[in-house]
Amino acid sequence: MWRLVPLKLGRLSRALKLAALGSLLVLMLLHSPSLLASWQRNELADRRFLQLNKCPACFGTSWCRRFLNGQVVFEAWGRLRLLDFLNVKNVYFAQYGEPREGGRRRVVLKRLGSQRELAQLDQSICKRATGRPRCDLLQAMPRTEFARLNGDVRLLTPEAVEGWSDLVHCPSQRLLDRLVRRYAETKDSGSFLLRNLKDSERMQLLLTLAFNPEPLVLQLQSAQK
């Protein structure tokens, strides 16, 4: 009697696996035209997939030209959007290279949040600007705190961003000076005055600082090498 229990559990496990595989095959057959299209198309050159349509409610844009020129392409199964529901962390494997150089190297791409977290960010921006959960982000961003540092001085001070994220839980002016200087990619010692940045760039910097400052930390670390 006791020997039958693991046997039944093993059969149940195999049955569930087969059912999941069968469901996946059915979905693939139902979406075969779109699957074929997604396999042939480089979505890393698509502005909507890159979420450039949300700018300035977006993140760093210095690599946009490389993406749009087709210098970054998904690897194999990463081209199938049907599998995105399994990719909770929004991590993608791709190949990057200059077309004239011929060779490509493997790279890992990662969005700064999950789909749920990014959707919550959109809703938060809209609520701050309009009081509604949905809106035109392009028009909403200039009406949030991410656009308040305007005028002739444009200082990024600890009082303005303290507590926005772990990076600025207790910030110093020295940290903020270095952060903006690296973001602006300039050696000018006075670049903590945000005059070096366009309005859209300044909003992207502050949004990144508040939502996920990982790219800013990487920039700070690369400056030390």
UniProtKB/TrEMBL annotation:
Gene Ontology cellular-component terms listed: COPI vesicle coat; extracellular space
InterPro entries from the UniProt entry: DIPK2A/B
Superkingdom field: Eukaryota
Signal peptide: none
Gene Ontology terms describing biological process: cardiac muscle cell proliferation; regulation of phosphatidylinositol 3-kinase/protein kinase B signal transduction
Family under the similarity heading: Belongs to the DIPK family.
This protein's name: FAM69 protein-kinase domain-containing protein
Organism: Neotoma lepida
